[in-house]
Amino acid sequence: MTTPAQGSRIPEGALYACDNSKFGSDGRGRYWPGAEAWFAWLRRTVERYGPDRCLWALAPDQPFDAAGTLTESLPWLARIRDLGMPAAYAAQDGCDAPGLLPWDDFDVLFLAGSTEWKLGPVAEQLAREAKARSKGVHMGRVNSRIRLGIAEWFGCDSADGTYLAFGPDKNLPKLLSWLDELDGRPSLIGGTHPLPAPGAPSSTPPARADLDRRSMPDHEAATRLKKHPLTARTDPAPALPTLRGTRARTR
Questions:
Q1: pLDDT tens digit at each of 251 positions of the chain
Q2: 111: which of 36, 126, 131, 215 is 20 to 30 A away, CA to CA?
Q3: What architecture is the 16-184 domain classified under in CATH?
Q4: 33 Rama sector, left if φ>0, alpha if ψ -120 to 50, beta otherwise
Q5: pTM
């Protein structure tokens, strides 16, 4: 995962994703450089590393504001696609209201918003709808085994968080063991669960006390949740590239 403020160097052969710093290390977008500067950075990034290695680029959003995110993101989604990158759209609290999710204009649903919302039944249903529409799904701020399991249960293809940033030598083996554990449960592989009927009870696992509300700094690490490749779409809109190599991909 890389951001305008972060200045990460993407390792040779690694996949990458582009966040926008709108949330940032303080949860208030302290490092947001402005729309034009962000897009100039995005263009430089794709020119340097290539679009084929990019999982997605997140359009500018308004954290926790569904209507504001729609206004902020719409002008940029097509421009992201024009760079050859899949465009990600930040789903916020309340975005399930009519007209607040421009499904045809983005390729990846990024589950943002408050902790309670992103782990709740509406986010789950939207994630499953996105998969039914052949779109990717990403969950932000995933820093525990419980939350990683919820993301995988929803069918997310990737997640990010600060877990590796704090003691990577100690935490990387733990993260890999979590992924191995999840991968050993075929019933929980994302995309195998049917989309619930309207009004049906949610299958979301109950929230746990360790689902913390910490803000994430800009040096977050992205994690692939699936070993299985995504199938490239054949319509004109860019799709997530076919995965190569191991399932766990961290910065």
A1: 899 988 778 999 999 999 998 886 555 667 789 999 999 999 999 999 999 999 999 999 999 999 999 999 999 999 999 999 999 999 999 999 999 999 999 999 999 999 999 999 999 999 999 999 999 999 999 999 999 999 999 999 999 988 888 888 999 999 999 988 888 765 433 433 333 433 444 444 443 333 333 333 333 455 566 543 333 333 333 333 322 233 333 22
A2: 36
A3: Alpha-Beta Barrel (3.20)
A4: alpha
A5: 0.75
